[in-house]
């Protein structure tokens, strides 16, 4: 879901069962050592480079 930029972090959090965006963000950061928004930006940048 984070790879698709059509949904906000709060929409994604709700879709996967979190009642708050902050809880989702904390859990994501604990597991992946990066914020969900930073992950989205990193993937977008990598995809842009690959498609250039």
UniProtKB/TrEMBL annotation:
Zinc keyword on record: no
SUPFAM superfamilies: Homeodomain-like
Keyword terms, alphabetized: DNA-binding, Transcription, Transcription regulation
Keyword DNA-binding assigned: yes
Pfam family, one: HTH_18
GO molecular function per UniProt: DNA-binding transcription factor activity; sequence-specific DNA binding
Position of the signal peptide: none
Domain of life: Bacteria
Residue ranges annotated for the HTH araC/xylS-type domain, each copy included: 1-42
InterPro entries: Homeodomain-like_sf, HTH_AraC, Tscrpt_reg_AraC-type_HTH
Official protein name in the record: Transcriptional regulator, AraC family
Source organism of this protein record: Roseburia intestinalis L1-82
């Amino acid at each position: 879901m984070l790879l698709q930029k059509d949904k906000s972090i709060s929409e994604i959090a709700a879709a996967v069962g979190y009642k708050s965006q902050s809880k989702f963000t904390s859990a994501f950061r604990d597991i992946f050592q990066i914020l969900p928004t930073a992950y989205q930006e990193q993937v977008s940048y990598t995809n842009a480079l690959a498609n250039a």
